[in-house]
Design a protein that fits this description.
This protein has 309 residues and is of the alpha/beta class. The protein contains 15 helices and ten strands. An eight-stranded parallel beta barrel has the order 1-2-3-6-7-8-9-10, surrounded by six helices. Bound molecules: 1,6-di-O-phosphono-beta-D-fructofuranose. 1,6-di-O-phosphono-beta-D-fructofuranose (FBP) binds next to α3 and α14.
């Protein structure tokens, strides 16, 4: 269904000064779809974990999700903003469900069998267009020994995508190099990853909710200087939004490993209160039985919409 853009969506599109009309139309298509339609917030289902973590770790707890049609239907029935997945999964449903949900082609992929912190290019702008996608997505690993090659690959892919009217999403996941596991989600590191993604030209940036740790000793002084207390997640989210061009880029937060509903929803409330643009929730959706997943997704959407849960 078409319709007039809401003030919230117009305001967001205005943040992308000078961007091509085709790209803005693609962003609008995602922002004007499903339950979050017109709110300026997004809730997206990512299903690339089969690649990143392997099939059993991803789907054994809810075997229905081995079937690509299941995840298409989950995203559609939940009224989500978009479905993001690698080319093979999208190709298995893009025709059958054409026009029912905006699609995002996850165009690079890693697997947990390798040791190098890198991703292979597994899709192109042309692939995305053929599948009817609105956007293309890339992971970057700031900090990894392969980071500069990843940045160059994203630059090339993003340029081609934008020239073809596709929006660009960057999954900014610092890891490798000097970072240990805790450092990957430290506040300064997540903010740094967000900023690098914005500087690389992402329209939408996806990061993990940050912890209160400051990993880089040199950054500590800068944070101390602000006098801001980052104990509350809400405050840390607000800082990540600053790093995303002070709210001029759409920044959404990933769901992480499957947890209790209450823990997921508490985090989503902090994302909302910190001014985050939404959530991208995979395992906490498709690893639950369908009815439970739909109910949790309903509540996640309600939180972001500021409705009664
Ligand atoms: P989840 O909600 O399942 O965490 O999905 C978000 C996501 O970014 C996926 O797109 C991706 O497969 C996964 O997290 C990667 O997580 P990690 O890099 O920590 O293995």
């Amino acid at each position: 269904m078409g319709g007039t853009l809401t003030p919230a969506v117009r305001a967001l599109l205005d943040c992308y000064d000078g961007e091509r009309p085709g790209v803005k139309a693609s962003l609008a298509r995602i922002l004007m779809h499903g339950k979050m339609r017109g709110s300026g917030k997004l809730v997206i289902l990512p299903v690339d974990q089969g690649f990143e973590h392997g099939p059993a770790r991803s789907f054994a707890s809810n075997p229905a999700a081995y079937d690509p049609h299941y995840v298409f239907e989950l995203a559609i029935e939940a009224g989500l903003s978009a479905l993001a997945a690698p080319i093979g999964l999208l190709a298995a449903g893009a025709d059958r469900y054409a026009g029912e949900i905006p699609l995002i082609l996850k165009a690079n992929s890693a697997n947990s069998l390798g040791t190098v912190k890198d991703e292979a290019i597994t899709g192109t702008a042309r692939d995305a267009l053929e599948l009817g996608c609105s956007a293309i997505g890339y992971t970057i690993y700031p900090g990894s020994d392969r980071q500069y090659d990843m940045f160059e690959e994203v630059r090339a892919g993003a340029a081609e995508a934008k020239a073809n009217g596709l929006a660009v999403i960057i999954w900014a996941y610092p890891r490798g190099g000097v970072l240990n596991k805790d450092g990957e989600t430290a506040l300064d590191v997540v903010a740094y990853g967000t900023h690098i993604a914005a500087l690389l030209g992402a329209h939408i940036i996806k990061v993990k909710p940050p912890t209160a740790l400051i990993a880089e000793p040199e950054a500590r002084t800068a944070y101390d200087m602000t006098g801001i207390d980052y104990t509350a997640l809400r405050q840390r989210i607000a800082h990540v939004m600053q790093a995303g061009f002070d709210g001029r880029r759409i920044v959404i937060f990933s769901g992480g490993p499957a947890r209790e509903d209450a823990a997921v929803l508490a985090e989503v409330r902090a994302i909302r209160d910190g001014g985050g643009h939404g959530s991208i929730v995979g395992r906490n959706a498709f690893q639950r039985p369908r009815a439970e997943a739909l109910e949790l997704l309903r509540q996640i959407c309600a939180v972001h919409l500021g409705e009664n849960e």
